[in-house]
Structures are given as C-alpha cells and as structure tokens.
Amino acid sequence: MDLVGVYRNLPLPPGQVVGIIVGVTLDRMFPARLPGPRAAHRAVGALLLVSGGALNAWALAERRRRTTGTFELEQPQSLVTTGPYARSRHPMYVGWWFIHLGLGLLRSSAWVAATVPTAALVEHPGVVDEERMLDREFGDEFARYRERVPRYVAGWRRSAAAGTRTAAGTTVVARPTS
Length: 178
Prior knowledge:
single chain, mainly alpha, Four Helix Bundle (Hemerythrin (Met), subunit A), two-stranded antiparallel ribbon, elongated
C-alpha cells in the first residue's frame, strides 16, 4: 500500500485533531494549569495516551483482520463486533478521547476540560451519520449489535423500549400490564 493509502486508513477524527491543536495553542497563549501535582498529571496523562493508542491499534487491527482484499477504513466489508467493538461501537473515537485527554494532562493544561468534550460534540453528528450508513449496509445485524453494545462507553445505554438512559447492567423495559 502506498503512503497516501496508509494515510487514508488512519483513524484521525478531525474534531479531536483540531481540539488537540486548539488546546495546545490556547495553553501556549493563555496558560491555565490544572490544580494538583504535575507529576500525577503526567503519570495519568501518559497512561491515557498509551491506552488510547493501544485501543486505536487494537480496533484497527480487528477491522483489518475482518477484511479480505484491500482494506479501506471508511468502506467496511463486514460488521465487526469482536475485540474492542464488543464493548463500544466506536472504540477508535474513544481511543482518541483518551489520547486528547492524555496530551492535555501531560501538559497539566486546564484547557483540556473544554477541548475534549467540545471535540466529541463536534464529531457526534458524523458518528450518527456513520451509524445510519451501517444500518443501511448491515440492516438487522447492525440493529441487534446496536441493542447490545453502547455507542461509546460501556455503562451508559439508551433503552429502546423506554427511551431512557440506563446504567450498565440495568435495563428499563416497558412491560404490558394485565
């Protein structure tokens, strides 16, 4: 695969990339430090950075493993529901949140408290569009997957029956009354 092909298949969500750049720029122009010991920030930041990179690498490897022929990140050949995709429908986005948060903590920058959620909110409509495409492409298979695996992080789910958010392991089901 040529370098352009490699670049096209890198999971670089624009919201997080811009968020990181904006965060570093704001931190340089208007430094705002997090309270607490910088050594603790650096340790947690390094852990998040490595965890995010590992999660992205694992998700990408799982996607490639489920691909026959030429791999194209934006053109899935099958619905991947194993590996990190068994816990999150979008583990690469979550990995980038960890990377973004980790970089901010490494810098002890309070700006990360604004840039991570803003970047995630900016990306969310694209994720919803991605899921519409997966729904069209994989139909009932994606519907069943969507029911059992949260969009981003385990622990928060939207119950289809009740239309409410529920904690992990808790399901709100509308039952007919007799």
